[in-house]
Design a protein that fits this description.
outer membrane lipoprotein receptor (LolB), chain A, 2 domains, eleven-stranded antiparallel sheet, 29% helix, 44% strand
Length: 199
């Protein structure tokens, strides 16, 4: 049987065809940046997820673990319902943070707590794909690809710098998978997030 081309030429053509097929993928990956990440995240108008959070505190022998559910509705409604070890709810809505622990209830206008507002905006701003809100408080750097990325936030405000060293948010496509906060005093927290069907 005679091949239509010499074997080496056929192999060359095969490689060229493969390169042409993969070029759009590589080109897209190379062009992928923070703006594209933010646009992708902004497409999600609501979300529901479970979480497991581990807080490492210097004075304790082992991490403190809690778990529960997260709810998000664009542009700024964020709810964290802790189920274990004790019920607790934190609801951010229209610039006010409502905290409920047992019979205790607190309402905190974020405009009166700028450091708390900056911290909350690290999560809300990421979920909303709001780059301007993030960059008003943090220096951003992005690693990875659209399929698996890591967004690092470094505080630019001196008061925030005194408390938080960095925030690392890991995601897959348009879904957050973990939020890691490292404080300047050595304490840290890691929240693992699993996307659920929106109720």
């Amino acid at each position: 049987m005679t091949l239509p081309y010499p074997p080496i030429f056929s192999l060359h053509r095969l490689r060229m065809a493969l390169a042409l097929m993969l070029w759009p993928v590589f080109s897209h990956a190379a062009d992928w940046d923070i703006d594209q990440l933010m646009r992708g995240l902004a497409q999600t108008r609501s979300g529901h997820a479970s979480f497991i959070e581990k807080k490492s505190i210097a004075m304790l022998d082992k991490p403190v673990e809690s778990s529960g559910e997260l709810f998000y509705s664009a542009p700024d409604h964020l709810e964290k319902r802790t189920i274990k070890p004790k019920p607790e709810s934190m609801i951010l809505d229209q610039g006010t943070l409502a905290i409920e622990r047992g019979r205790q209830k607190h309402h905190l206008p974020l405009q009166d707590y700028p450091e708390l507002a900056a911290f909350i905006d690290s999560i809300r701003g990421t979920l909303a794909g709001d780059r301007a809100a993030l960059e008003s408080n943090y220096r951003l750097s992005l690693d990875g690809t659209a399929e698996h990325w890591t967004l690092q936030l470094l505080p630019i405000n001196e008061k925030m710098q005194a408390v938080v060293r960095r925030i690392r948010i890991v995601g897959v496509r348009d879904a957050l998978r973990s939020i890691e906060i490292t404080q300047t005093d050595g304490d840290s927290s890691l929240m693992l997030i699993e996307k659920l069907a929106t109720p």
